[in-house]
Amino acid sequence: MSRPVQFNITPKPVDYNGHISVVDAPEGHMGEGFFATKLSEVVGLARKNSIWPLPFATSCCGIEFMATAAAHYDLGRFGSERMAFTPRQCDLIMVMGTISKKMGPVLKQVYLQMAEPRWVMAVGACASSGGIFDTYSVLQGIDQVIPVDVYVPGCPPRPEAILDGLMKVQELVGQESLRRRNSDHYQKLLDSYGIQ
Amino acid sequence: MSLTNEQIQTRLTEKFGEQVSAFSAPYGMLTFEAPKELNLKVLQFLYDDETLRFQFLTDLQAVHYPDNKGKELAVVYHLHNLVDNVRIRFKVFTDINTPDIFTATQLYSSANWMERETYDFFGVNFLGHPNLKRILNVDEMDYFPMRKEFPLEDQTRVDKDDEMFGRGGSVN
Question: In this structure, are residues B103 and B60 in contact, taking their beta carbons and an 8 Å threshold?
Fold first, then answer.
């Protein structure tokens, strides 16, 4: 017997015959046989519901991520079930765990191998700030080597927090202007990290 | 009959006389010192001697004693006799301004990486080492982090309030 539990992100009655929840259409003008909206809305909608994450897991936050990706919390509900360990195909790098100073250049290289548009999520205290490891060998936050979009606090964060972080990334992805990656502001940001 | 600490001490004093000193046995493990110029001769003797047979180097590291003027750095060898299952600890001391010690890599291959690690963290210069460069820390590091004059904390942090961490500030 199936349990009466709903796991849908959109609060609406589940169609038990279809078993599929569909995201809402963006704002636009609709008439007989046509629908008009902004291109950026459509692109954002497509991108935000098919983020391919690259897990860069080095310690206990990685274990929490595994729980997040497993059946109980199920990252796949957000269109992110396709975990890839190849940076060239991924949209979001999730850095989970302590990054030592020796690991810094490796992380940066993985980030550089990702194609634009790319997003970065720092999961946990260590990736965000070095955490308890205020020591000579540990990078004090990955934002010293790559730009970060979303920080998830916690030591380690609960799977719910990681999901919340992913939803924040989805928000950013869905609202991003199509010109952002070509802007001077973005160029300056990358220059400040010595990228390109 | 297995090898006792007294037998090892007797063999060593027969061979080296007053040069080997400070014998003690904390937790039953024989510990002694020798001048740093003699480290290879002592190790070779411990390796070759028919009764001692300390042919396995378990560990090698350094200790920094900032108050021990002229003998600030201790290099400690942990040796194991696999036949009799006996372990000993052998120390040599060196001035921190001339931290030159002869390498043990010709005698024990396992000394290679351990000497690199000791160089990495304490700056002990192992003379004759085939590849003495940093092994664990980043190559760009310009100091030896385990020496006590260097604070453990990362010095690039500006956002941490020392007062909140119980060091410095007005709270004591």
Answer: no
